[in-house]
Design brief:
Elements lengths: L12 E6 L9 E9 L2 H14 L9 E7 L5 E7 L2 E2 H12 L6 E4 L1
Length: 107
């Protein structure tokens, strides 16, 4: 399923990796709002969320993280820059209260 995404930042950050990420156990988490096969849909989702949820995202930067899975399919995740777990949980819970699905991803 697709979820709307937004960024309070003026720029959309994009990183690319191949395969699985070797995330360090830094105690940092990103809040993921959606995963898209189409990069343009991810960009549109960010723009829409930026307008609609400006209050919740006023101090939050989002990025598009593109990766290739084991089946050579490319996905574009929309998530926040890493933050402390308690802050990530708080943000995700605020979105869940308005029926926006999100998950925490360890960094």
């Amino acid at each position: 399923s697709t979820h709307c995404i937004s960024s309070a930042a003026s720029d959309v950050y994009k990183r690319q990796i191949n395969g699985n990420s070797n995330s360090k156990l830094s105690g940092q988490f990103s809040v993921q709002f959606g995963s898209f096969r189409n990069l343009n849909k991810a960009k549109i989702a960010i723009a829409n969320m930026k307008k609609k949820y400006i209050n919740l995202l006023s101090n939050i930067n989002l990025e598009i993280f593109s990766y290739k899975n084991n089946d050579d399919l490319i996905y574009h995740r929309v998530w926040t820059l890493p933050m402390k777990k308690k802050n990530a949980l708080k943000l995700c819970n605020q979105f869940k209260l308005i029926d926006i699905v999100c998950i925490l991803q360890p960094k």
